[in-house]
Amino acid sequence: MPVVYLGLGSNIDPEENLRLGVNELRRRYGDLVISNTYQNAAVGFEGSDFWNLVVGFESDDGPASIQDEIEVIHELAGRQRGADRYSSRPLDIDLLLYGDLDVDEPPLHLPRSDVLAYSFVLRPLAELAPDLIHPGTGRTLAEHWQECDTAGHPLTRVDVRL
């Protein structure tokens, strides 16, 4: 069964909305591995800091089915689609990795480019799966994290129980 990794973020009532997201994912997919939660400045716009984390789980559901479930959870959190890409949001869930799938056929982009672009995605992912080989680069997530320039997106660990 493929291992799936999702990134979750929020900068509107983040503890409440991340808890909602994690609980809904547990309800749908069972046991989750959950990274620490990290706080970072908003990227691309002025706004409240985001809280970000990564969850992992095994699933026989395909990527399209998981993406559909993500959209249902977004609606439960009150996320409005069509809003500016760079804006505050109650909940943002992104499909980061689906097993070793490496595909770039819209709307499916796996692994998601954010994995290597942002420390707030890479750090919690590398925390959960340091030895996982990135399907696009053939290198481990720990290797990528060691080389990550964190100055552009500094992180602060948030002590929260989800």
Layout of secondary structure:
Blueprint: E1 3-10, H1 14-29, E2 33-34, E3 37-40, E4 50-58, H2 63-76, E5 92-98, E6 103-105, E7 108-110, H3 114-117, H4 119-128, H5 141-146, E8 156-158
Provide a concise account of the structure shown.
The protein is 31% helix and 24% strand. The protein is α+β, with helices and mostly antiparallel strands and 162 residues long.
Describe the structure.
By secondary structure, the chain is an alpha+beta fold. It has five helices and eight strands, in the order βαβββαβββαααβ. The protein has a single domain, classed as 2-Layer Sandwich (Alpha-Beta Plaits). The strands form two sheets. Strands 1, 2, 3, 4, 5 and 8 form a six-stranded antiparallel sheet that branches. Strands 6-7 form a two-stranded antiparallel sheet. The radius of gyration is 15 Å and the shape is globular.
